[in-house]
Amino acid sequence: DTPSDDSPCSKPKTTFDDVAGLEEVKEELFEIVDFLKSPDKYKKMGAKIPKGVLFYGPPGTGKTLLASAVAGESNSSFFNVTGSEFVEKYVGVGAKRVRTLFEKARKEAPSIIFIDEIDAIGAKRHLESNNEKDQTLNQLLVEMDGFNKDSNVIIIGATNRLDLLDEALLRPGRFDRHIRIGSPNYHTRYEILKVHTNNKPLDKSVDLQLLAKKTHGFNGAYLSNIANEAAIFAVRNNSNVITSEHFDKALERVIAGLESKNSVLI
Ligand code: ATP
């Protein structure tokens, strides 16, 4: 078992322009980007930059995308992992993976470690239990506390359920910044649709504002899916451009997919 070799590290090219809307969130994250780019400026001033940031809110709203944009904007290494990857049957394996991940991130610094579904390892611990999960969480806490001020590693955790997390994770010096990423409103849906169609040839019949109105309750993941399905319909119809009809069909297909999955729109 050599988890060190498979920790997914990349240098994303994502920028804040790829993330539609969420202006206030981006503003808050800009501070972190600036720190990763010029840490000395902050150190000279004696300022402490957060080690951990938590994104919380419903799925498909751009949490992973934002974390990757923080890495892209700051030219940092991006370690993208999921909490459940650390949940193992044998005691000590998850903890070892956490240790290896942080070692690698320090080596490749500046780094962003993004832990999606952090509740899989960070859920509230039970008194007197010392199971595999607790050891993994303890190791995460140890790594976060052990950062020296020069490590230039920032951890971004994401969860749909902030209330499930162990309080130890939320203490100052750990994940002490919490940023809510909510479902997109009409304006944001319109912006998301623009981002996902700006590389596509659109016919004049396409009215993205109307589409944004019709997609109340859709998250960014569904909207990007609609734009992609519309392009596929256009190709299939041998059309040079994507028309409003293609978008209508794409919308129908995505809604049908949702209904068959029995998903509830948020
Ligand atoms: P989960 O909780 O399911 O991991 P998430 O919040 O991390 O979801 P992402 O994986 O970042 O969501 O989003 C899925 C896709 O939806 C993105 O790759 C992107 O294509 C699109 N998307 C979501 N939000 C936005 C946004 N604000 N701007 C542009 N695209 C978006």
TrEMBL record:
Molecular function (GO) terms for this protein are: ATP binding; ATP hydrolysis activity; ATP-dependent peptidase activity; metalloendopeptidase activity; zinc ion binding
Class of the enzyme per the UniProt entry, highest EC level: hydrolase
Binding of ATP, residues: 57-64
**UniProt entry keywords in alphabetical sequence:** ATP-binding, Cell cycle, Cell division, Cell membrane, Hydrolase, Membrane, Metal-binding, Metalloprotease, Nucleotide-binding, Protease, Transmembrane, Transmembrane helix, Zinc
E.C. no = 3.4.24.-
What GO cellular-component annotations does this UniProt entry give? plasma membrane
All residue ranges annotated as the AAA+ ATPase domain in the record: 49-185
- How does the cofactor bind to this protein, according to its record? Binds 1 zinc ion per subunit.
Asked if Cell membrane is a keyword of the record, the answer is: yes
Q: How does it sit in the membrane?
A: Multi-pass membrane protein
- So which cofactors does this thing need? Zn(2+)
Q: Where does it live in the cell? A: Cell membrane; Membrane
User: How does it associate, per the subunit comment?
Assistant: Homohexamer.
Report the protein's function.
Answer: Acts as a processive, ATP-dependent zinc metallopeptidase for both cytoplasmic and membrane proteins. Plays a role in the quality control of integral membrane proteins.
**Under which name does UniProt file this protein?**
ATP-dependent zinc metalloprotease FtsH
